[in-house]
Amino acid sequence: GVAVTGAWWLHWVPMAALAGALALAGMLQVPGLMWSARYARRSRATWMQSWLVALVFAVLGGVSALVAGLVVATFVLLRDSAATVLRHVRLEGELRSRRLRRAGSDGWLSARMDQVAVFELQGVMSFGVAAHMAEQVRLVLLPRHRWVILDAGRVPAWDSTAMAQLRALVRDLNQQGVEMAVAAFDAEAAQHAGAGVRAFRDLDRALEWAEASILAQRPAKERPSYPQRDLLGEVGEGLPAAERRSLEALLVHQSVPARGRVFEAGDIDHDLLVVQSGHITLVTSWPPEEGLRLATVGPGMAFGEMAFLNGAARTACAGAERGPAQLLRLSRTHFDDWARQYPAAALVVMNNLAQIGARRLAVTTRQLRAVLE
Q1: Cα dihedral across residues 362, 335, 264, 237: positive or negative
Q2: Exposed, middle or buried, 366 (CB in 10 Å: 0-12/13-18/19+)?
Q3: Where does the record place the STAS domain (predicted)?
Q4: Is the peptide bond preceding residue 299 cis, with omega within 30 degrees of 0?
Q5: Contact of 286 with 260, CB cutoff 8 Å
Q6: SS3 letters for 59-96?
Q7: How far is residue 71's CA from residue 74's CA, in Å, rounded to a whole number?
Q8: What is the rounded distance in angstroms from the CA atom of residue 178 to the CA atom of residue 138?
Q9: Could you tell me which residues come within 8 angstroms of residue 181 by beta carbon, excluding any fewer than 6 positions away?
Q10: Three-state SS annotation for 26-71
């Protein structure tokens, strides 16, 4: 039989043997883990990618396998980056800025902060990653959300295609009546994003923008009314008229120019200060761009209460960050003299200071909880 049919198949035997030997040698080079059924079940995607590269190597050679490996690795990197681009999503108004407000406005605002959605991003923003991010933002937003903040503090770079996706997201949300801002956008990225993308230095400033936008929609009849001559602000709430006038007579006026400082960390004055106009920012170091903002207070609000109460040195810097401000100072010595004359009224002032401190402690606790989550 071999003599009769060998002419048709015998010359293929050496080639078949060589091919079989090469296939066997290739199989011996495959790591044992790739033959594991358990590995295939637990990491199916990685297992399939590994076999794809191996088959390309077997059929087309090493160069093609290298190219295939690079393509697969790039695909995997983009897929994983897209899957983890949203580090945190906060839809219930859990975050608040360090811009402090009086109790009436703060309570009204707190009940409406669930209109603000905050998305914390991470990783390099390329076209595929940004497209996935934008799609996820659109999907998770609820009808009540009117302000969206993208926190880009963990995004090291944006490419031009990601910027296009960002601009498209801003445009789509605006058409739905939703305003969007990007926090912690570096200057170069903000410049390339264009004027249509609202950018802020950090998440704290972006949250303040959202809060101010919500308060701007507050009906006039729901806005708190304060006395026209409200020199003591929140410190004097509940004081009888005679005692109030007596305490107001002890106040000393101070003008603070734009970018001017009121006190620095380590100062030993113990005055209590009340803002009459403008805003005062408390930071870890001055100028504010070089430190962390701790709080910003506006008209009718007091600051410096810790040194006033415990006599310790100042623990922060305070100044007029955005423009000039007008203040009233109350020295602890003058207050003590007044308190001996009006002890019941002094208890009212101390109770007001305690409530101010409790509200600010609650704000700090909320901010720490958000950071640790």
Answers
A1: positive
A2: middle
A3: 114-184
A4: no
A5: no
A6: HHCHHHHHHHHHHHHHHHHHHHHHHCCEEEEECCCCCC
A7: 5
A8: 11
A9: 147, 148, 149, 150, 198, 199, 200, 206, 209, 210
A10: HHHHCCHHHHCHHHHHHCHHHHHHHHHHHHHHHHHCHHHHHHHHHH
Please say whether the beta carbons of 250 and 334 come within 8 A. yes
What kind of fold does domain 233-372 have according to CATH? Jelly Rolls (2.60.120)
Answer yes or no: are the C-beta atoms of 151 and 123 closer than 8 Å: no
* Integer-rounded Cα radius of gyration of the chain: 33
Provide the residue count of the chain: 373
Alpha helices, DSSP H, located in the chain: 2-9, 13-29, 37-42, 44-60, 62-83, 103-110, 127-140, 160-175, 187-193, 203-216, 241-248, 305-310, 332-341, 343-372
Under DSSP, the state recorded for 343 is: H
HSE-up (13 A, CA, CB side) for residue 127: 3
Name the phi and psi angles at 212, rounded to 5: -65, -35
For residues 179 and 214, the answer to whether their CB atoms sit within 8 Å is no
What is the Cα–Cα distance from 249 to 269, expressed in whole angstroms? 20
Tokens of 326: 């007008």
Instruction: From first to last of the 373 residues of the chain, give the pLDDT tens digit.
Output: 555 565 565 566 666 666 666 555 555 555 555 556 665 566 565 556 565 556 655 555 554 545 545 455 445 444 544 567 888 999 998 889 999 988 888 889 999 999 999 999 988 887 778 888 999 999 999 999 999 999 999 988 888 888 888 999 999 999 999 999 999 887 777 778 888 899 998 999 999 999 999 999 999 888 877 766 789 999 999 999 999 999 999 999 999 999 999 999 999 989 999 999 999 999 999 888 888 888 999 999 999 999 999 888 999 999 998 899 999 999 999 999 999 999 999 999 999 999 998 888 887 787 777 666 6
Q: 86-218 belongs to which homologous superfamily?
A: STAS domain (3.30.750.24)
Under 8 Å between Cβ of 305 and 234:
no
**Rounded Cα–Cα distance for residues 149 and 90 (Å):** 10
